[in-house]
Every structure is written in structure tokens, then in C-alpha cells.
């Protein structure tokens, strides 16, 4: 069953938020969507944390665009694994994003111009602190669960460490306790594509009424390759050529689109460049790079997790080479080292990192069963 039409709301926060960089930001907005009803005890709230290019629009159909289906609509809704007949679900667009929350595209009140490249650096921990203020707005003292995939999973982990008394369960899907050097390298190549675009103008492209579309296209193409598995790409595209009937030329000397996979990547790049902001991309990939909770504990993840009180569900996917199952097992080991309650599921799925967004019955049944336990706890 669908949630139907959903409408976001804008929350304004006048009190300055101190960021990890030492900077502060005041009078900022966060866009949120909520689904379901908050119970009288305010105990049935679920926070969904989004990944790089997603937003507050988790589920349902946007009231402003009938073609805009929430990015996790197969997971959240009436009768779905995260059942909005039972839970009050909140989706928050993070600070620095480009979907309505205050970010680089927003006007800096001190200059009257868009922040652009002057928008302060934000981290996963900054987002969690901002989300805690959203919880305060709804008078939620403790989330029944905080849940996220990929970068969203990092935020869920950070919640369990930063606010151990404000989270009952932590659901971490297709995530990692820190990026590998290879992952940071992929992010850097994507950022370099944007920074080297002549239309970037040092991040001040708004004033020039242009957008670094070429850089955004390449950045998205690089990222998208890492989200799919080799088997998935082979099954979808193989080595199929896109040639006009009667075209007998053996080679394409103009370097136009030749293979189906090229066409797919260019389409994804074009679509991304239409809706995403380049400065936001730079900010969010840096937040990914910086996340490393064990760093302050002599690189000991078990020590970093010593104060956690939440129960955990950790899920990985066999063909996810961006955030491989080995990284999820590191999280599980650190939790077990602290004698914490953890459920781990490793799904043998062919879809790579993107599997966390797809409707695999084994994956969804696992999440459904886990949330059934949460619901039973709330009733006891």
C-alpha cells in the first residue's frame, strides 16, 4: 500500500549550531517529511537518514510532482517493512544539501548572496547534532530506531555513539565504519571532475548563471560504476553495441556513444546534473571521507563503541564492493566485543551497493522481522 501524496515541512532553527570545524551556522532551515502518527508516549518514532544524493523524501508521492516517488518507498509505508501503521517515520534533508535545507545554494544573510564555496564544511556528526534538534522539535526524547543505508548507515552509527540514551535500535545497511583509501580515491576523482569544469568558477557559478554540468555528469558516472556489481552490469548491458541499421563501420572514430553501458552512464550523468548541486556534492563526499569514529580511540572501533546502548541490525550484500561485507563484519565484531545485542544479515544479491535500495524479498523480510520485534517491545 502507498502512503499517497506527501508534503514536506520546513523547520527553522535560530540557535547557532556549532560545527566540528569550529564554524557555526545560525538561522538555518531543515526540510523534513513525516509519515504515520506519533503515539501519545512519543515512543514509536523512526529516523531515516539519507545517503549522498537522496533527501527528506523517503516515501510516498510528492504532492508537488506526481512522478517523484520517495527513494525508499519500497521499504517505508503502510504494511511495508517499516510499517507506518505502527511507526512515526521522519526523513530529514541534511544541512548542506540541495533539496530545501540550508546549503551552498542558500543566501548567506551576512552577504545577501548564495553561500557557494563559502558554506562551512559539515560532517556526519554535525548532521546528527542537527537531527537531534529535529527530534527536540517533535518532543521525541528517544527514537525507537535510527536507520540508514550507505552514508545514512554512518549517521545511524554516529547516533548510537553520540546519543546512546536517545536511540533504542540502530539499523545499519550497506555501510562502513570508515572509507577505505580506494573509496576516498573514487570521491577525489569525482570532485576533480567538478573542480576542473570551466563553469565551476571556484564554486561561485551561481553568480555567473551557469552550472558545472560536465563535471557533475562525470562525477555521477564515476559514482554509478561503483554502485553496481560487475555481474549486474554484465547482465544489464553486456557488450551490446548501439549501431544504426546498416552501419558497417568497424570502429567509431568520433567517440560517440557506442556501447549500451555508455548510453546508460551518460543518461545517469545527465539526469544527475539536472537536479543536483555541485557544491553540495563536494561537501557531502568530504563528509563521507571524514567519517572515522575510531580515529579518536587510537583506531580502535571497539573502544569507540564502548558507550553504545542500542540494539543493532547490520545488513550487507555479497556483491557490494564499494562497502563490502567485510566492513559490516568489522562493525559487528566491535559490537560483540562490547557484548551488545546485534543481528547480522549478509544477503547474497547480485546488485552491488545499490541492493540496499531494491526490493529483495530476503532483505525486506529480515528488516520486517526486526521491526516486528521493535513494535512488540513498544507494546510490552
UniProtKB/TrEMBL annotation:
Keywords: Acyltransferase, Amino-acid biosynthesis, Cytoplasm, Methionine biosynthesis, Transferase. Pfam families: Abhydrolase_1. Residues 44-359 form the AB hydrolase-1 domain. The keyword Amino-acid biosynthesis applies. The active site is at 150 (nucleophile), 320, 353. The keyword Cytoplasm applies. One of its GO terms (cellular component) is cytoplasm. Belongs to the AB hydrolase superfamily. MetX family. HAMAP family: MetX_acyltransf. This is Homoserine O-succinyltransferase. It comes from Polynucleobacter cosmopolitanus.
Amino acid at each position: 500500500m502507498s502512503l499517497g501524496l506527501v508534503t514536506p515541512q520546513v523547520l527553522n532553527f535560530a540557535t547557532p549550531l556549532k560545527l566540528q570545524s569550529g564554524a557555526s551556522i545560525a538561522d538555518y532551515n531543515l526540510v523534513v517529511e513525516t509519515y504515520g502518527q506519533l503515539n501519545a508516549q512519543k515512543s514509536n518514532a523512526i529516523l531515516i537518514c539519507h545517503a549522498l544524493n537522496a533527501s527528506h523524501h523517503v516515501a510516498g508521492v510528492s504532492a508537488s510532482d506526481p512522478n517523484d516517488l520517495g527513494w525508499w518507498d519500497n521499504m517505508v509505508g503502510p504494511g511495508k517493512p517499516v510499517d507506518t501503521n505502527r511507526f512515526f517515520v521522519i526523513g530529514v534533508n541534511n544541512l548542506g544539501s540541495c533539496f530545501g535545507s540550508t546549503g551552498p545554494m542558500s543566501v548567506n544573510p551576512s552577504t545577501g548572496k548564495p553561500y557557494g564555496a563559502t558554506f562551512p564544511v559539515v560532517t556526519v556528526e554535525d548532521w546528527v547534532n542537527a537531527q537531534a534538534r529535529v527530534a527536540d522539535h517533535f518532543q521525541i526524547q528517544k527514537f525507537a530506531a535510527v536507520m540508514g543505508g550507505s552514508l545514512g548507515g554512518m549517521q545511524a552509527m554516529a547516533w548510537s555513539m553520540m546519543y546512546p540514551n536517545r536511540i533504542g535500535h540502530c539499523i545499519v545497511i550497506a555501510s562502513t565504519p570508515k572509507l577505505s583509501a580506494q573509496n576516498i580515491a573514487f570521491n577525489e576523482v569525482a570532485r576533480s571532475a567538478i573542480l576542473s569544469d570551466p563553469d565551476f568558477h571556484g564554486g561561485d557559478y551561481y553568480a555567473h548563471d551557469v552550472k558545472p554540468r560536465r563535471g557533475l555528469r562525470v562525477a555521477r558516472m564515476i559514482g554509478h560504476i561503483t554502485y553496481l556489481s560487475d555481474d549486474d552490469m554484465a547482465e544489464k548491458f553486456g557488450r551490446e553495441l548501439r549501431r544504426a541499421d546498416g552501419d558497417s563501420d568497424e570502429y567509431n572514430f568520433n567517440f560517440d556513444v557506442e556501447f549500451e553501458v555508455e548510453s546508460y552512464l551518460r543518461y545517469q550523468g545527465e539526469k544527475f546534473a539536472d537536479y543536483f548541486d555541485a557544491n553540495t556534492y563536494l561537501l557531502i563526499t568530504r563528509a563521507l571521507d571524514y567519517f572515522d569514529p575510531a580515529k579518536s580511540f587510537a583506531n580502535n572501533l571497539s573502544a569507540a563503541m564502548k558507550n553504545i546502548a542500542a540494539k543493532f541490525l547490520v545488513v550487507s550484500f555479497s556483491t557490494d564492493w564499494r562497502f563490502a561485507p567485510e566492513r559490516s563484519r568489522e562493525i559487528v565484531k566491535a559490537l560483540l566485543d562490547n557484548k551488545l545485542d546485534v543481528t547480522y544479515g549478509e544477503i547474497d544479491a547480485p546488485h552491488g551497493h545499490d541492493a540496499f535500495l531494491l526490493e529483495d524479498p530476503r532483505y525486506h523480510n529480515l528488516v520486517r522481522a526486526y521491526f516486528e520485534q521493535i513494535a512488540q517491545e513498544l507494546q510490552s
